[in-house]
Design a protein that fits this description.
The complex is a heterodimer of chains A (about 110) and B (about 110). Chain A is mainly beta and about 110 residues long. In chain A, about 0% of the residues lie in helices and about 60% in strands. In chain A, the strands form two sheets. In chain A, strands 2, 4, 5, 9, 10 and 11 form a six-stranded mixed sheet that branches. A five-stranded antiparallel sheet of chain A has the order 1-3-8-7-6, with no helix packed on it. Chain A is globular. The mean pLDDT of chain A is about 90. Chain B is mostly beta strands and about 110 residues long. Chain B is about 0% helix and about 50% strand. In chain B, strand 4 and strand 5 form a beta hairpin. Classes of the chains: A mainly beta (about 110), B mainly beta (about 110). At the A-B interface, strand 5 and strand 10 of A face strand 5, strand 9 and strand 10 of B.
Amino acid sequence: SQQGEEDPQALSIQEGENATMNCSYKTSINNLQWYRQNSGRGLVHLILIRSNEREKHSGRLRVTLDTSKKSSSLLITASRAADTASYFCATDDIAQGGSEKLVFGKGTKLTVNP
Amino acid sequence: DGGITQSPKYLFRKEGQNVTLSCEQNLNHDAMYWYRQDPGQGLRLIYYSQIVNDFQKGDIAEGYSVSREKKESFPLTVTSAQKNPTAFYLCASSIRSGWNEQFFGPGTRLTVL
C-alpha cells in the first residue's frame, strides 16, 4: 500500500525561485526520506529526517517533518534548471514490521525553466 | 568505482517468454531490493533480500522470481505469469536491512511485445 503521497503532482517554476513539495503519510514512522529521479534514471537519496527531528538542511534543501500532521515538506531554494526532476518521499512502515522496507509515494515532477 | 549496475538498459521480449534482469553491486551491502515503476507512478516493491540465500516477497511479487546466491548479485526473473510486465525496473541496495538509505541502479526498461 502507498504510504507517502506527494503534493503537487507537478510543479513548474522559473530559475531562481523556490520550490516546495509536500508529502503526507498515514501511519507511524521511524524516519522519512526524500529521493530525486532524473527522467529515465535511478533514484538518488537526498536527505533523511528522523521522527524526532523537526527540520533538516542540506545545501539548498530544507526538509521539515510534522509527525502530528503526518506530513513533510521539501524546499529547494534558488532553483536551477538542473533541479528539474521527479522528487519522491519514502517512509518506513512500522505497521508492516519496521524499517526493512521503504514505501514510496508517486512523486512530484518539478520543472525549472531557465 | 563502487555502485550498482543493471543490465541491459533496454530489453525487449516476446509475450510468453521469461526474462532475467541483472543487478550487481560492489558496495558490500547486505540488503538488496527490486522495484517496479510504471509511468507517472511511484515505486512498488517486488522482492527484497536482507542477506545472502534469503529473500522475501514485496507488495507485487506475483509473476516474478529472484535468487540471492551471492552477496553482490540479485537477479530478477520476469515470468510469463506476470500479466503486464512492461515497466521500468529498478534495483537498489542498502548497507543492511533497516539501514534506510538505499542506493539505486540506473534501471532496466522492459518492453514486452
